[in-house]
Amino acid sequence: MVSTLSYKILFLLVNAYTLSPTTHASESTLLEVVCSKVKNADFCLHVFGSYPSVRTADLPELGTLAIDKARDKAAATKHDIVWRLSGPVLITNN
């Protein structure tokens, strides 16, 4: 579910470039604006809000974070699948 959410957020971040900065409420962070556009805004804020730097992040930084989260989740899923199929093995990042 995190991977799907990451892709949706990445899509919103790319499209958010077209938004005017005056569109956002002055009290809302960019993350809150982006997360308000996904199906489960609370989950989005929980997943991405755990990073201290996200409160001041701009669109490229949020995009990088979304890509990093999706990559990390994919790596963890791959490790889990390999482990379930063949027992515990060490997977190196090559």
From TrEMBL:
Gene3D superfamilies for this protein: Invertase/pectin methylesterase inhibitor family protein (1.20.140.40)
Keyword annotations: Signal
Highest taxon of source: Eukaryota
Single annotated GO MF: enzyme inhibitor activity
InterPro entries: Invertase/methylesterase_inhib, Pectinesterase_inhib_dom
Signal peptide bounds: 1-25
NCBIfam families registered for this protein in UniProt: PME_inhib (TIGR01614)
Designated name of the protein: Invertase inhibitor
